[in-house]
Write a structure and sequence with these properties.
By secondary structure, the chain is mainly beta. The chain folds into 3 domains: 3-145, Immunoglobulin-like (Sandwich); 155-245, Sandwich (Immunoglobulin-like), CATH 2.60.40; 254-358. 3% of the residues lie in helices and 42% in strands. It has one helix at residues 98-108; strands spanning 3-4, 32-33, 38-40, 49-55, 66-75, 87-89, 93-97, 116-128, 136-145, 155-157, 165-166, 168-171, 175-182, 185-192, 195-202, 209-212, 222-224, 228-235, 240-245, 254-256, 271-273, 278-285, 292-296, 304-306, 312-313, 320-322, 333-334, 341-348, 353-358. A hairpin with a 6-residue loop joins β15 (195-202) and β16 (209-212).
């Protein structure tokens, strides 16, 4: 098989497949051309054109007819049930850069990076005129070898952190996430912990990144007005960032009360779960004794998470935080008779909701 390594391809003539259903008729006049061999995508050629499809005008129409050419692409064998959205193209050709095609295959269809995949492209000539005319259809099949994006480390830097911190790549070189404590001040992103250039700095607003490659360019930082636990995502490809401060975060959180195994001792911890932005505990709850419980954030009987009213139902989800347990009464949840069992407790501090889910 011929292998195409260069990503800027002019299409060669290829197999023509015609389809027919209630609204489609085989005419053989419309043809579409695509790559004549396997297209091997290389990240080094990301901005170059990877492949181009071209087609003719199809059968001759009446002077009053209007013809629209609709392009779609799909995994071969899917019968265009998972195809890209219809794209009306006016100039008889459709091109994709290496980066566009690789991203489309990996993200739209979920193909594993580095895998080869057989694809199909289809052009439909849709006619509008005085009389109904069946649309013409032409299909071309081809193979693409995708690539995995190279890893690009990124470090959180600036006055909001004590020293540069590596953040987590969720998609190599493209998407990142991080959560942790930020001090008041500002931050940016560096590609090396000990080198301030190049960097990603604050752009036009607090959700936009800009590339900084020269010391003479503005070294603008994203501001942090209040210290605390922050959650951020970074989209390096589209130069976008989302960063927000959670209303509450504590390194230690304890489940206490006579409804728990710990009684009124600080021995049962809820553990932080970064995926749900909250704390999780699994274990038994009982209605024995008073059947009461609450969640403390220190061992000095200070701040706690608690229900909105006395003897709060574990069927409810509302929760409040107070810095002193006696503020407006010492409110607790109450496990009623018949509610005993093993529970998964999820305290979501982003939504400020709590869920008591009884386990089978």
């Amino acid at each position: 098989m011929k292998i195409i390594h260069h990503t800027g391809i002019a299409a060669a003539a290829c197999l023509l497949l015609l389809a027919c259903n209630k609204s489609e008729k085989e005419t053989g006049a419309l043809t579409v051309s695509g790559p004549s061999g396997k297209v091997v995508l290389l990240e080094a050629n990301a901005p170059d054109v990877a492949l181009t499809f071209t087609w003719n005008s199809g059968v001759e129409r009446q002077p009053t007819d209007t013809v629209s050419y609709i392009f779609r692409m799909d995994i071969a064998g899917h019968d265009f049930t998972t195809a890209t959205p219809p794209d009306t193209v006016a100039d008889f050709q459709k091109s994709f850069t290496t980066d566009e095609l690789n991203e489309l295959i990996l993200e739209y269809w979920g193909v594993h990076p580095g895998d080869e995949v057989e694809m199909e492209a289809r052009v439909v000539a849709s006619v509008r005129g005085e009389k109904f005319v069946y649309p013409e259809i032409a299909v071309v099949r081809f193979t693409v070898a995708t690539y995995a994006y190279a890893s690009v480390p990124l470090y959180l830097a600036g006055s909001a952190v004590a020293s540069p911190i590596a953040i987590v790549e969720t998609v190599n070189g493209r998407n990142y996430k991080w959560q942790g404590n930020l001090n008041t001040g500002g931050f940016k992103f560096q590609y090396a912990p000990d080198n301030p250039l190049p960097s990603l700095n604050k752009g036009a607003d607090n959700n936009t990144l800009t590339e900084r490659t020269e010391a003479s360019q503005p070294d603008d930082l994203f501001p942090v007005s209040a210290a605390g636990w922050h959650v951020m995502t970074v989209d390096r490809k589209n130069l976008k960032i989302s960063c927000r401060r959670l209303p509450y975060y504590f390194p230690k959180v304890y489940l206490i009360g006579d409804a728990t195994e710990a009684g009124w001792n600080f021995t049962l911890e809820l553990f932080w779960n970064e995926d749900i932005l909250g704390y999780v505990y699994e274990g038994p709850l009982t209605s024995a004794g008073e059947g009461e419980l609450k969640i403390h954030t220190d061992t000095g009987w200070g701040g706690c998470f608690r229900p909105m009213e006395a003897s709060g139902s574990i069927a409810g989800t509302a929760v409040q935080y107070t810095y002193t347990q006696s503020e407006k009464g010492d409110l607790k949840w109450k496990v009623l008779a018949g509610e005993d069992g093993n529970y998964r407790i999820t305290l979501n501090v982003d939504e400020m909701k709590i869920y008591f889910e009884k386990q089978e």
